[in-house]
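Z., the sequence and structure:
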Amino acid sequence: MLEQREPLTKSEAAQINAVALAFVGDTVYSLYVRERLALSGCGKVAQLQKVAAQVVSAKGQSEFLDKLLPLFTEEEGAIFRRGRNSKKGSKSKSASALEYNRSTGFEAVLGYLYLTGQEARIQELLSLSDVESFALTQEKTPFKPGKL
């Protein structure tokens, strides 16, 4: 990605508020999904935007997290729990509290990994997503909000 700084140490990154880690992680995941969709050649930009919105939504992230949770290291699990359990300044309008909390935990892990320079681990985890296949199924059928 746009690495132009020295990575933080794990202890430095662990001192950052979990919601701030999630703030960074949200961008990491959004960029990853958008890049994969753009390079896939699946559909028109308007359709790609709809798919990206579904995939990066709290609901979409919570569903993807089911694949990832068993793969988290102990350290990643601790960051996930910090993010999930953190007090947030807002609530989701389109996801349940559980989905929103889980997605915040997921984003916190991505933010932590990114800030500590663990991009290979980010790639390893995110490569399990099936963004392109989801885009193709959406291209052939009408877009249905809430379905992933």
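Residues 10-136 form a domain with the Ribonuclease iii, N-terminal Endonuclease Domain; Chain A fold (CATH 1.10.1520.10). The mean pLDDT is 86.

Let me know what you think.
H.
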